[in-house]
Structure to design on (386 residues):
DNA sequence: ACGTTATGTCAGCCATGTTGACTTATTGGC
DNA sequence: GCCAATAAGTCAACATGGCTGACATAACGT
């Protein structure tokens, strides 16, 4: 299969004007029907992240900084260990960007009240301002994408994305989405299985 | 807004069992309602890419190799310049991974028939086999995500992702999704605007 | 007092993106 | 047939953000 002399994929994603056609009718979606998703997901994510990237670059920051800002905003008083569990990166990777954000006054660290070893993380006003900018530009893109779809699209799009997440990670994400601290015990550490 | 002393986000994404709730009813989706998408998109993309990453690692390859394999499979005889237009990376970045793929026999280069300066790219049988593995594992995840949603979910999910793509890039992606060579003239070069 | 825990830090590696400059082969127009 | 333009390859150098393993410090709890 997939002979190099083949003439290329022959799915008939006919050009029905402006909307993308789904997998043809009622046939179970074949592998070849789903290839488009791989591309759509890639291009969508690339454009989704490029808006904030452009803003962050003005501050000398990158995507990694964005993630830290985002989750600290989401869960004020987040502990470093919790952030590591969410991002699933190493202490060292986090330390690099976190130090910058703290040094430049975007994030504030406070020792925990009950356990003073903990460094609880908070956004400063400056950090909140930057994060708001990033959130707004991404929200605008999402709104635009939803606007052209019917009602019910919101719930369905959320559930589609949620279903793309590895099953064991879903409880953690679901909790996180509510802005709550997540129990990470079941989430997969590396990749899957 | 977003005071550091705030108690955190207070959206009521109530836990309605297993499915994620959409933005509450009919109110226009507020900024805070859309934050969940940012997280869902991040986690979904992370898990989506981790399956192929694990396989690629066995070959000493990375995500960049995957993209090359994918698009060469999609459009056999792709020119290097076309690939650069699709991936929007620099010649140097592409050269590194492409050279590896060619040297190790996953991709075959043939001078163009009409213009022998062109290097048309094709998958070898070996390359096709690897690409199939990667496609299949990702297709399985997509199928799983769609399976739990109603009919019509396929079209809607595709259109949602398509809508997330920067408008100027959509014609290129639409053409690509059909497995055709894309006219890239309107697509945005760097990021947006 | 001591082992555990939370965090920070050091040195160094890898993948993949970037730039600018230069080479080579080939084409197509004159 | 000459020559500018084009397709591609290549070199050196750099940035970001992952990774590892090892070790330091401070605070907690028994």
């Amino acid at each position: 299969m997939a002979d190099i002399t083949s003439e290329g994929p022959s799915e008939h994603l006919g050009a029905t004007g402006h909307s993308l056609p789904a997998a043809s009718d009622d046939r179970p979606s074949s592998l070849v029907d789903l290839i488009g998703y791989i591309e759509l997901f890639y291009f969508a994510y690339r454009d989704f992240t490029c808006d904030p990237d452009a803003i962050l670059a003005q501050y000398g920051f990158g995507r990694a900084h964005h993630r830290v800002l985002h989750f600290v905003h989401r869960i004020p008083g987040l502990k470093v260990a919790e952030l590591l569990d969410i991002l699933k990166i190493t202490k060292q990777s986090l330390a690099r960007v976190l130090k910058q954000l703290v040094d430049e006054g975007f994030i504030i660290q406070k020792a925990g009240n009950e356990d003073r070893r903990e460094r609880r993380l908070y956004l400063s006003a400056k950090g909140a301002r930057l994060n708001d900018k990033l959130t707004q530009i991404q929200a605008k893109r999402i709104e635009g994408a939803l606007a052209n779809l019917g009602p019910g699209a919101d719930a369905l799009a959320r559930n589609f994305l949620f279903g793309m997440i590895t099953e064991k990670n879903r409880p953690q994400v679901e909790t996180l989405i509510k802005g709550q601290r997540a129990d990470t015990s079941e989430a997969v550490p590396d990749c899957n299985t």
User: Anything to note?
Assistant: Chain B has two domains: 32-148, 151-193. The CA atoms of residues 23 and 30 of chain B lie 8 Å apart. The first strand of chain B starts at residue 78 and ends at 79. Chain B touches chain A through 93 residues (CB under 8 Å).
